[in-house]
Every structure is written in C-alpha cells, then in structure tokens.
Amino acid sequence: MSEVPYATRRVNPRFPFFADAEVTLRDGTGVRAQLSELSSRGCYIDSLEPIPVRTKLHLRICDGMSTCELHGKVLYTHSGGGFGIFGMGVLFEEMGPEQHSAIDTWLRGLASRAGKNSRRTPSLTS
Prior knowledge:
Number of domains: 1
Mean pLDDT: 85
Low-confidence stretches: 119-126
Largest sheet: 6 strands, antiparallel, barrel
Helix content: 10-25%
C-alpha cells in the first residue's frame, strides 16, 4: 500500500515573507519576532520566546519602509526542535481599512513574484 503525501489546503494562500515583527502582549511584555509567511488572514512568526496558544497580541510588522500594526491571536505553536526557536501561527483580528491595504499591497507583490518564478521559459530548439 503506497502512502499518499498529506496536502494542506488553505482558503487563503500563504507566501514566504521575511520581515521584522514586534509583538506586544496584553500585559505590555514585548517579544521580538521574525515573520516567515504571510496570508490575508494571518502570518507565521518565529521567536526565541514561545507565546501560548490563544494569547491575544498586538503585532507590528516592518518590511523596509512599510509598517503595519494590527491585533492578532496565536492559533498554534511549534517548538524549534531543540534550537530554541518557536514558530507560531497568528490569526489577524480587528483589521481596519489601513491594515487590509498594507497586507493586500504586500500580498500583491508576493503573488506577482511567485507568478514570475513559476513561469517556464520556453526552450529554444534548432
């Protein structure tokens, strides 16, 4: 019997996206993080400090000159396999027009780059 690889199906596609992130917890604690994936509904962050599942937070994403601040909630956490880095899936909450605009701008750029990378260059044959 052959094994069928598990395929993750997502309503909102994720794109690789590397940006600095500053997380502020409800008690005011600050946590430095790094974004590694972005979608229209959330992101995946890596940090040296784990944030418990269901924790509500304030997230500030900085990508060069562009910044977006929004609220979110940790949906799941992965341990770093002994390397001291924790990965967390964050769901965006309470997004206003400015946040939607910033996220959509980043996603359009990421989608266009992904489209260019997936196109095949026709081979020239003589």
